[in-house]
Design brief:
With 259 residues, the protein is of the alpha+beta class. It is 33% helix and 19% strand. The relative contact order is 0.17.
Length: 259
């Protein structure tokens, strides 16, 4: 009656019987893009959101969601996950966060829904963590980027449908890999790891002084993008002249911002 595998010959919903399939390695990568206001983006990047560390909460939520997908999506199988990973890419040019969720298993069915669910719940968590600043935050898209394994073979999202080239294991930026959990690497990716301590100290300085990137940059007469780029790992350091102006606006020494 239908080519939809979740419908039987009479059109009734069913869980697909996969008992005759061989278990194999299957992996899927999904993404969600969430667009924030300038103030909300600054709070996420600096770690100064009202509810705390936004990305840390979103990471844990995404991983938990991947593990509970079969409880949320009615006809999904319960499968053992061997990997669940959430990475973040801070898109300062559009005040957005790109969430990349990776799920992997050795099982008789795929993990596309686990990756998609993880990306979606991570995005919703960012909304929850920032709604006190801006209730107009928009989850722009949730989609599958790649999958491998299974009878249908590999899949990659068409290039025409994305402005950023998808990667099977995209690198996180800024605070994207701040903890080790289910296969995540500790700390920001090399070669930026040498600047991690300064970046964290600078972020802590902003939080302790309740400094918003946009307001602070405006008072100092520098582009807010310079602060965002450093906080998100897109630049290795804040230019000396910019640091001097920021320090002067905050009424501290330059070295006080990085210790």
């Amino acid at each position: 009656m239908s080519k939809l595998t979740h419908l039987d010959d009479q059109g009734a919903a069913r869980m697909v019987d996969v008992s005759e399939k061989d278990a194999g390695v299957r992996e899927a990568v999904a993404e969600a893009v969430i667009v924030l206001s300038e103030d909300a983006f600054a709070a996420v990047a600096s770690g100064g959101a009202p509810k705390g560390d936004v990305l840390a909460a979103a990471r844990i939520a995404g991983i938990m969601a991947a593990k509970k997908t079969s409880e949320l999506i009615p006809l999904c199988h319960t499968i053992p996950l061997s990997k669940a990973e959430i990475a973040f890419d801070m898109l300062a040019e559009k005040n957005a966060v790109r969430i990349t969720a990776t799920a992997k298993t050795v099982a008789q069915t795929g993990v596309e829904m686990e990756a998609l669910t993880a990306a979606g719940i991570a995005a919703l968590t960012i909304y929850d963590m920032t709604k006190a600043i801006d209730k107009g935050v928009v989850i722009e898209s949730i989609r599958l980027l790649t999958k491998s394994g299974g009878k249908s073979g590999p899949y990659a999202a068409p290039a025409a449908r994305t402005s950023r080239k998808p990667a099977a294991q995209p690198a996180a930026r800024g605070r994207a890999r701040a903890s080790v959990l289910m296969g995540e690497a500790a700390g920001p990716p090399s070669p930026r790891s040498g600047n991690a301590a300064q970046r964290e100290a600078f972020r802590a300085f902003m939080v302790s002084r309740r400094l918003r990137a946009t307001d602070w940059a405006k008072e100092a007469g520098v582009p807010a993008a310079q602060i965002y780029a450093f906080l998100t790992g897109q630049s290795r350091a804040i230019p000396p002249d910019v640091a001097e102006r920021l320090a002067r606006a905050a009424r501290v020494r330059v070295e006080d911002m990085f210790k």
